[in-house]
Amino acid sequence: MNDLWTETGYISLNKTGESLCGDRVEMHGGGDEDLILVLADGLGSGVKANILATLTSKILCTMISGGIPLEECVSTIASTLPVCSVRQVAYSTFTVLHITDNKTAHIIQFDNPATIVLRDGELYDYPKTTSQISGKTIWQSSFPIQKNDVLIAMSDGAEFAGVGMTMNFGWTRDSIADYAVANYLPENSAKSTCGIISDECNRLYGGNPGDDTTIAAVRIRSRHTVNLVVGPPANKEDDTRMMNLFFSKEGTSIVCGGTTSNVVSRYLKKPIVASLDYSDPEVPPISAIEGVDLVTEGVITLSKVLAYAEDFLDAAKLAPNWAVQKDGASLIARELFENATDINFFVGRAINPAHQNPNLPITFAIKQQLIQNLTDCLKRMGKHIRVSYF
User: Fold this and answer.
1) Phi/psi class of residue 87: alpha, beta or left (left: φ > 0; alpha: ψ in -120 to 50)?
2) SS3 assignment, position 202
3) Crossing angle, helix 364-380 and helix 299-312, to 10 degrees?
4) Between β-strands 342-347 and 384-389, what pairing exists: parallel, antiparallel or unpaired?
5) Residue 276 DSSP symbol
6) Is a pLDDT exceeding 90 seen at residue 140?
7) Which of 243-252, 267-276, 351-360 has the highest mean pLDDT?
8) Which of 41, 233, 342, 355 has the most crowded CB, counting CB atoms within 10 A?
9) Helices (H), the chain
10) What is the pLDDT at residue 164?
11) Which domains does the chain have, with CATH numbers?
12) pLDDT (average), residues 101-111
């Protein structure tokens, strides 16, 4: 193993008029563990396609993670998928991205557009071999991974974007690859990469996708720790112990809450520099303390961050506002969702006198539940989380 981190993300656009997506992404592992990501595209659209794609992705993900040979995986799919009563075939295309030991990428592809691999922002021509398994032509590839590698898998809805509308023959795989290169930034998260391409697909479709369209990405990056403290300790005598632990951690430091900021200010012997810049009227302004990366208000700001986290996990959400806004909640969201791999929460149990206003019934239990919900979302994003209470 090494110090690399495997980050994943995906976005799906349903075919216009369909409530279910005929594509499906299934994942196992990731982070500092082996990753298996399967993108399956079921025949047709709607319920039937969704069933085919769901079965294919779950079977492949489960069997490959269990070390079952590929030949057996594919033959199991061929014998398991229900036959379409209209077309008399059982069919689902698939792409498997398998990262092992954070050292090697294995790509298995059947009838989906070829996976795009970016290395340091440039198109990487990875090796490919073909084989016949259960009557299907399977493409396989293996190559060593490097920091900043990005693997982009897609369903054929991406290639069909704009057919007969904005483009004569759709958006070809090569054009998509050129677009990914042109919009590459080393700091782009896997989900942001998917959003960039999905947004363009949606634009080419005129906002009405003519086919289910899914983009899934894997980004190889270094680990980065973010430390967030919210609320002072229940016992004032623990202030110094809490601050010693908080500032002993490497990585980005975020302080949330007015009372917490005062504790930090006393500990660092640095003043709080307030700001009246309301870039978002729903989020209190940020402050500054020398030695701290970000200082924000507490519960209201973190509630907004939680709402952003829930949106981030929605596979159909495009172009999040927090990606470009500069209010406290957006800045925290970018740190936690995009930059962090490991997150340490330091949560004080003190009851804030400001919260005793009957018109603002915020108790520690509510704050604790807020942190719990946020950490649950972050775990679903694949982050390593540690919460310490004081």
Assistant:
1) alpha
2) helix
3) 30
4) parallel
5) -
6) yes
7) 243-252
8) 41
9) 46-65, 70-80, 173-182, 190-204, 239-248, 258-268, 299-312, 328-333, 364-380
10) 65
11) 4-222 (3.60.40.10), 225-389 (no CATH)
12) 94
Collapsing DSSP to helix, strand or coil, 184 comes out as: coil
Would you list the DSSP string of 281-313? TTSPPPBB-TT-SEEE-SHHHHHHHHHHHHHHT
- Mean pLDDT to the nearest integer, 83-88: 59
Q: Whole-angstrom Cα distance, residue 316 to residue 15?
A: 12
Tell the residue number behind the tokens 């907004």, with chain if given.
304
Statement: residue 130 has pLDDT above 90: yes
Rounded to whole angstroms, the Cα distance separating 115 from 124 reads 10
Whether residue 315 contacts residue 25, with contact meaning beta carbons closer than 8 Å, is answered with yes
* Segment 191-203 mean pLDDT: 93
Question: What pLDDT does 183 receive?
Answer: 96
Q: How many C-beta atoms lie closer than 10 Å to residue 337's C-beta?
A: 24
Closest of 43, 80, 44 to residue 62, by C-alpha: 80
Mean residue pLDDT across the chain: 89
**Tens-place pLDDT, residues 18-57:** 999 999 999 999 998 999 999 999 988 889 899 989 999 9
CA distance linking residue 199 with residue 213, whole number of Å: 11
Distances in whole angstroms, Cα of residue 363 to Cα of each of 229, 349, 370: 17, 10, 11
| pTM as predicted | 0.88
* CA distance to 12, 185, 339, per residue, from 180 (Å): 17, 10, 20
Cβ atoms 279, 331 nearer than 8 A:
no
